[in-house]
């Protein structure tokens, strides 16, 4: 079964084809590298939200609690990613290039889906606190309110990074990307939040081109994915990949419960 044939690979947000797969080279320039790394992060987000969207109407009552925790992890992960961009990555790009409005379009796109995204997050907190009862149809409606502009943003940002090539060696995107990644990962709990990225990163995607993502020592990746992630294993049953990093079909795609 190829990666693109899984239910979650194309809807509601299609996976992004990475710049490196479109222009394969053993030594990609820093802009292709950075845009590809960002594509990988965005594809983790896409897989997570696709898995929520597709399974939400079919989750049986016995699985509501772990599914809510899984959704909270996805929400928190996306929120941390965008806060990391706005608090560090974007300002650093503007400082180094001297272009004060360089990333305004991207920040504007964040704003385009902010209200719908935050409404989803508020609902999740109400569920977590027992003030709401889980409703799969409501979940889909809340997602529909922001998933369109989110999809546009996740795709458009890749082009933005590639276009930074006009600044040449003035930028060190590998260094900036690593610094941002370290900051974001440092804000996420290793057992309740970070696994949403590791268990929605498909090691086989684009013929295994991204098997070494994220760019951290392999033993650290193994510990985070196959060690810490098992702490709340019931949460991650809804993810698109197993503890081995390989893709799998979603377990809850049947009749509404």
Protein topology:
Blueprint: H1 19-22, H2 30-55, H3 64-97, H4 104-128, H5 136-144, H6 147-163, H7 173-187, H8 195-198, H9 205-208, H10 218-227
Describe the structure.
The protein is mostly helical. The chain has a domain of 163 residues. Helix 2 runs antiparallel to helix 6. The two termini are 28 Å apart.
Could you provide a short overview of the structure?
The chain is mainly alpha-helical and about 260 residues long. About 60% of the residues lie in helices and about 0% in strands. The protein has a domain of about 160 residues.
The proportion of strand residues reads: under 5%
Provide the succession of SSEs.
HHHHHHHHHH
Count the DSSP helices. Answer: 10
Q: How far is it from the N-terminal to the C-terminal residue, by CA?
A: 28 Å
Structural class: mainly alpha
Radius of gyration: 18 Å
For the secondary structure, the number of strands is 0
Q: Major beta sheet, specifics?
A: none
Helical content, roughly?
55-70%
Poorly predicted segments: none
InterPro entries: Dimeric_xanthone_biosynth (IPR053206), Hemerythrin-like (IPR012312)
Protein name: Hemerythrin-like domain-containing protein
Pfam families: Hemerythrin (PF01814)
Q: Main traits of this protein?
A:
single chain; 257 residues; mainly alpha; globular
